[in-house]
Write a structure and sequence with these properties.
2 copies of one chain form a homodimer. The first copy, chain A, has 10 helices and no strands. Chain A is mostly helical. Chain A is globular. Chain A binds a DNA duplex through helix 3.
DNA sequence: ACCTGAACACCGTTCAAGT
DNA sequence: ACCTGAACACCGTTCAAGT
C-alpha cells in the first residue's frame, strides 16, 4: 500500500499530537512516511494545502443534527461539539487559524451556525458578526484550555494564585461565555 | 549614533508596516539597520524578545484615563483605543498573539480592564473570563478589519455578495460586538 | 505513476575572532 | 562595547533524473 492523501492526513495528526505544530514540517512528515520531503509534493500541492486538509479533518466530527427543537440547547451542543473536536487534536486551533474556511464541510458548518443564530433571533444584518463572535470565542477558549492542560502543576498554581481563578471546571467556564453571547444577542438589536 | 533598543523597535515597526510580519526577520531587520544579523543579539536576547518589545510598543498608546464616570462609556472608549492602537501597526494582532502579556504596560492594561469590568457589575468569579472575552473580541475584530482593508476591490465585492454584509461602517460593527458582550455580562450572573 | 538527490533561497542562533 | 564571518541546524519548494 502506497502513500495516500488519507495516510498523509492521519500521519500529520499523529505528529501534531505527539510533537505539536512546530514539529510538523514537510521533512518530519516525510520521514514518518518513509519517503523524502520532495515526494510529498506528488500527493499534495504544498504545506498550505496540507493545513487545509487538516483543518477539514479536524472539523469532520462536528455533525449538524437538527433533532433539538430548543434553539438554545442546539447552539450549546453545537459549540460543545466544536470544542470537543478541537480538543481531540493538539494545536487544532492554530491549524484552523492558518487555513481559510473554504473547504466544503467548514462552509456547511458556517451555514448551519448561521441558521441557528437566525433562529435564535439575530437579525440578518447582525448574524455574520454574531457567528464570528461565537466562532472566535470557541477558538480562543479552546486555545486557552489546551494551553492550561499542558502546564505543569507548579505553573498552574502560580496562575491560579495570580488570577484568583478556579478553572477546575472548564465546562462551566465554557458555558458561561456562550450564555453571555446568547443573552447579548437577544438584548442588542 | 549607534544601535539602540528603541531604534530596533522603530525599525521593526517600519518593516511591519511596509512588508508585513512574514518579512520581519532578524536578517531583514539587520539589513535595514546596516548591520549583520548576528549583531542584533548584542542588543536583544532573541526574536521572541523582539516580539515582546514590539507588543509593548504597540500597546503603549493605550491610556487609562479615569475621567469617565459612565462605566459603559469608559469601556467603549477603552476598547476603541485598543482597536486604534492595533490598527496603527500592520500585523499588530499577530505580534500580540505571539507574545505573552507579561510586560509592565500590558499587565497594567489587564488590571485596568478588570477594574472596569468589575465596576460594570461582573462578579469576581467571572471577571477574568469576561476580560478574556473582550480582549479576544477586539483582537479578532481588528484582525478581520485589517485583512478586509488589504483586500482588493474585486475580492471585497465577492465577499460582500457572499455574506450579504455591509461593512461600510466598521465602527458600527465594532460597537455592536462590545454591546453584545456588555449586555451579556449583565444578563448572566 | 511515484520517488529521489541535489539544489535554491531562505530561517534563527551561536561563537570565536576582530576593532 | 560592539560588530562580523562563518558555521550549524533547520525551513519550504523545485526539478531533472531515476524506476
Amino acid at each position: 500500500m502506497g502513500i495516500s492523501k488519507e495516510l498523509i492526513i492521519q500521519t500529520s495528526i499523529a505528529i501534531l499530537n505527539k510533537s505539536g505544530i512546530e514539529n510538523l514540517t514537510m521533512r518530519t512528515l516525510a520521514k514518518e512516511l518513509d519517503i523524502k520531503a520532495a515526494s510529498l509534493y506528488w500527493h499534495i500541492k504544498n504545506k498550505q494545502d496540507l493545513l487545509d486538509l487538516l483543518a477539514e479533518e479536524i472539523c469532520a466530527p462536528i455533525t449538524m443534527e437538527n433533532r433539538l427543537r430548543d434553539t438554545e440547547k442546539a447552539i450549546f451542543s453545537f459549540c460543545q461539539m466544536y470544542r470537543e473536536s478541537l480538543l481531540k487534536v493538539r494545536n487544532a486551533v492554530q491549524v484552523l487559524m492558518e487555513s481559510a474556511p473554504n473547504t466544503p464541510h467548514r462552509l456547511e458548518l458556517i451555514q448551519h451556525g448561521l441558521k441557528l443564530i437566525r433562529t435564535w433571533g439575530v437579525s440578518d444584518a447582525n448574524c455574520y458578526a454574531a457567528m464570528n463572535m461565537i466562532n472566535n470565542y470557541v477558538l480562543a477558549f479552546v486555545d486557552d484550555e489546551a494551553r492550561f492542560s499542558r502546564l505543569g502543576v507548579e505553573e498552574l498554581t502560580t496562575v491560579v494564585r495570580h488570577m484568583g481563578m478556579e478553572f477546575s471546571d472548564f465546562d462551566k467556564q465554557f458555558r458561561y461565555g456562550i450564555s453571555v453571547l446568547l443573552a447579548g444577542f437577544c438584548a442588542v438589536q
